[in-house]
Amino acid sequence: MKKLDLKTLEDGHSTGLSVRYGGFLAESASVCLNHHAHPLDVVIPVEGSISESYLLSRLMVDESSKNSLNDEQEAIEYGAMGVAVALIYHCHGFKVSRSWKGTGFDFWCGEEKEGYPFENKLRLEVSGKMKGTDGELKYRLNEKLGQTTRSADMGLPACAIIVEFSTPKTLTGEI
Fold first, then answer.
1. pTM confidence score
2. Which of 56, 108, 157, 160 is deepest in the core (most CB within 10 A)?
3. For residues 145 and 48, what is the distance between their CA atoms, to the nearest angstrom?
4. Low-confidence spans in the chain with pLDDT less than 50
């Protein structure tokens, strides 16, 4: 079983995110997992275009973490992004760059080699649910993959990752 550590998001190098933004995503995911009383290390199966089980390591959560993320919808949104970015990094070695509104996806994913600019390889759309059935998650996956067609003319593949925190589990798809 492979390891997926949310602390990777905090290092300011591996994923391309700043220390502060990466830490926020890691903390958001950790608050969602803690809400369901998951231990610091929990098995999270990933199904779909990426198919593997991971031992997901989350951050410790305290009262200030919970107080900072009392808006459950926001915690789910950013927590799912944290898990997805960590997964993309661990699976493909890709760094990410936040996309802008209207593109139909959340992140550009790609490579950044020394001395070269960021090279876009993949469009990534992310969604999360605190608790959902397999049917709901599959529906959301198809919905999010469809959403990426707004930017299909870019000629890059698109990936959608749906994170469910109660079980926890992740669905992935690619077009």
1. 0.96
2. 160
3. 13
4. none
